[in-house]
Design a protein that fits this description.
two-stranded antiparallel sheet, three-stranded parallel β-sheet, mainly alpha, Rossmann fold, 8 helices, 244 residues
Length: 244
């Protein structure tokens, strides 16, 4: 059974910290995901992976940080974004809180590409301040086995609200995807930084990558299993600590 922050109290974590100092922090966003997926996509997926990892390792999972750096999606109604400074501060404060309580080894499990750079910024300062802190950051879709499942299914990897994320959500919350509304825009590679105007201009439906109509819950389950295996392995590479 997974150890979830919302299911336990402080005595439980005090007891856990006597023999372990690891924690998992899911991070996502609340942003548009095409015509067919919900705003919760980027935190539902890492939270589910974190739950599965915890069920196998007994490492506790914090509540997800559900808001991310999503400025480039703000031309789509309903997207809620944090500014880069606010997001950096939120990640830093969560890590600082965990460190104060005795957690020294953290896995940050990210579900949103726009968070990659600000997560790095947040961790640079906190790692400099706390030399005893060790942090791994995993972006669930950036894994050779996960990418292999996608390429085998569709010949491409995930970009945004494409077949990969759609499949994962079909496996987690099959009531959410509305595939009859799905629309497809091909990914356009380039080096220009995209703001809201650029994103909606290039991808008017809000999604890009492998056609989401090719998604399935079975493929989503394969993606989730591959990602879970990877993060279980990452946690198990850390040596056990001596009881306190």
């Amino acid at each position: 059974m997974a150890v979830l922050w919302e299911d336990v109290g402080w005595p439980d974590l005090e007891e856990f910290l006597r023999t372990d100092d690891r924690a998992i922090v899911p991070v996502g966003s609340c942003e548009q995901h095409g015509r067919h997926l919900s705003f919760a996509t980027d935190y539902l997926i890492p939270t589910e992976i974190a739950r599965r990892v915890s069920a196998r390792t007994r490492v506790p999972v914090t509540p997800p940080l559900c808001f991310g750096m999503s400025i480039h999606h703000m031309d789509f109604p309903g997207t809620l974004t944090l500014s880069p400074d606010t997001f950096v501060a939120a990640v830093r404060d969560i890590v600082e809180s965990l460190h104060r309580h005795g957690f020294r080894r953290l896995l940050i499990l990210n579900g949103h590409g726009g968070n990659i750079a600000p997560i790095g910024t947040a961790l640079a300062t906190v790692l400099d301040r706390h030399r005893d802190l060790r942090i791994k950051v995993g972006h669930w879709w950036q894994d050779p086995k996960v990418e292999a499942v996608m390429r085998d299914a569709w010949g491409d990897v995930e970009y945004h609200a494409a077949a990969g994320e759609t499949s994962a959500i079909l496996a987690i919350r099959p009531n959410i995807p509305r595939l009859q509304r799905a629309a497809h825009s091909a990914w356009q590679k380039g080096i220009e930084v995209m703001g809201p105007r650029h994103w909606k201009g290039l991808f008017p439906h809000g999604s890009t990558g492998a056609d989401p109509k090719g998604a399935s819950a079975e493929i989503g389950e394969r993606l989730l299993r591959a990602a879970t295996d990877r993060f279980v392995s990452e946690l198990e590479q850390w040596d056990p600590i001596a009881p306190r």
